């Protein structure tokens, strides 16, 4: 299968308009030029900490469903890293931006964070391994691309330098390339029906990525 015919190439091309909307949305424009308000970034970080716990659980389920030992190790390690990152948010970002553990504990998931987390967990439990991977891939891949894009145009020094450097860094990009490769391998043996569900899962997760950042920009909370 040539590079242009891989699942990831097709999925990226089909959802390119949504990625462009994410790349240029107000939250990321303000993050790049250093004008993003502390209130909006704190909202984002609190919700991201909630999300990473759910993301870690979904990765652990993907590990359990893996069709070879390499996938088992890859996603079990990914689940561990997601939880470790969440804890480092408490220790580093939260401290830097004036958030303590008590505030995190009393801050509920926003509607979008709840929706995205529930979507990943439900997909992880109910769908076959290739579809689970497709639902997880946008979080990896879009963050990597947005991180690199913001790095290329960011005002430096920037209040959010640590965030930018994390997602633009080579270590994160190496992990993303590995997930893309595993997803493409899983797709090669998938039936047309499963491939269609993979694309649907990838599309929905990409839409939820946009909604997550937009929710932070709007400081969205439960309306009732």
Automatic annotation (TrEMBL):
Domain of life: Bacteria
Hydrolase found in the keyword field: yes
Pfam families: TENA_THI-4 (PF03070)
One GO CC term on file: cytosol
Keyword Magnesium: no
Entry GO MF terms: thiaminase activity
Pathway: Cofactor biosynthesis; thiamine diphosphate biosynthesis
Catalytic activity: 4-amino-5-aminomethyl-2-methylpyrimidine + H2O = 4-amino-5-hydroxymethyl-2-methylpyrimidine + NH4(+); thiamine + H2O = 5-(2-hydroxyethyl)-4-methylthiazole + 4-amino-5-hydroxymethyl-2-methylpyrimidine + H(+)
CDD domains to which the protein is assigned, alphabetical: TenA_C-like (cd19365)
All residue ranges annotated as the Thiaminase-2/PQQC domain in the record: 26-218
Alphabetical list of Gene3D superfamilies matching this protein: Heme oxygenase-like
Enzyme Commission (EC) number: 3.5.99.2
Keywords: Hydrolase, Thiamine biosynthesis
Catalytic class of the enzyme: hydrolase
One GO process term, biological-process aspect: thiamine diphosphate biosynthetic process
Function, as annotated: Catalyzes an amino-pyrimidine hydrolysis reaction at the C5' of the pyrimidine moiety of thiamine compounds, a reaction that is part of a thiamine salvage pathway.
Similarity section: Belongs to the TenA family.
Matching NCBIfam families: salvage_TenA
PANTHER family for this protein: BIFUNCTIONAL TH2 PROTEIN, SI:CH1073-67J19.1-RELATED
The protein's name in its UniProt record: Aminopyrimidine aminohydrolase
Native species: Ancylobacter aquaticus
């Amino acid at each position: 299968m040539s590079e242009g015919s891989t699942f990831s190439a097709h999925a990226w091309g089909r959802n390119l308009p949504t990625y462009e909307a994410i790349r240029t949305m107000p939250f990321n424009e303000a993050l790049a030029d250093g004008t993003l308000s502390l209130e909006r970034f704190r909202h984002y970080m609190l919700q991201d900490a909630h999300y990473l716990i759910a993301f870690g659980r979904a990765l652990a389920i993907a590990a359990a469903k893996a069709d070879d030992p390499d996938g088992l190790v890859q996603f079990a390690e990914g689940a561990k890293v997601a939880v470790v990152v969440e804890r480092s948010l408490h220790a580093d970002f939260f401290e830097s931006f004036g958030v303590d553990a008590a505030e995190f504990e009393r801050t509920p998931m926003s509607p979008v964070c709840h929706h995205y987390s529930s979507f990943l967990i439900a997909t992880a439990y109910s769908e076959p391994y290739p579809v689970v991977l497709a639902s997880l891939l946008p979080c990896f891949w879009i963050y990597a691309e947005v991180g690199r894009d913001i790095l290329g145009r960011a005002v430096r020094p920037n209040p959010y330098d640590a965030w930018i450097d994390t997602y633009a860094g080579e270590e994160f990009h190496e992990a993303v390339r590995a997930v893309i490769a595993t997803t493409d391998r899983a797709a090669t043996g998938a039936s047309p029906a499963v491939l269609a569900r993979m694309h649907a899962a990838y599309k929905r997760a990409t839409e939820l990525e946009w909604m997550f950042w937009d929710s932070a920009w709007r400081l969205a909370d439960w309306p009732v």
